[in-house]
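hey
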C-alpha cells in the first residue's frame, strides 16, 4: 500500500530565496534609471520553501520525482 509522502522543495516562484526582485524607475530620471527592490514572495510567504505531496510506493520513488527536495516525511 502506498504511503503519502510530504515533500519540501525550494519555491518555484522565487527559486528558494523567499523574495522576488522588482525593477522600477527612479523618480525624476525620466525613465533612464531603475532601482531594484525586493518583495516577499507571495507563493511561499517568504520562506523560500513549498510543500508538495503525493502517494508513493517508496521514498526512492519520491526522490526520483523530486531530486531537489529539501526534506521528505512519510505520513501514513
Amino acid at each position: 500500500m502506498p504511503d503519502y509522502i510530504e515533500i519540501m522543495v525550494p519555491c518555484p516562484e522565487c527559486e528558494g530565496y523567499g523574495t522576488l526582485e522588482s525593477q522600477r524607475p527612479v523618480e525624476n530620471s525620466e525613465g533612464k534609471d531603475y532601482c531594484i527592490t525586493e518583495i516577499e514572495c507571495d507563493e511561499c510567504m517568504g520562506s523560500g520553501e513549498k510543500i508538495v505531496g503525493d502517494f508513493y510506493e517508496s521514498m526512492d520513488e519520491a526522490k526520483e520525482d523530486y531530486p531537489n527536495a529539501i526534506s521528505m516525511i512519510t505520513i501514513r
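The longest helix spans residues 59-65. The chain has a mean pLDDT of 92.
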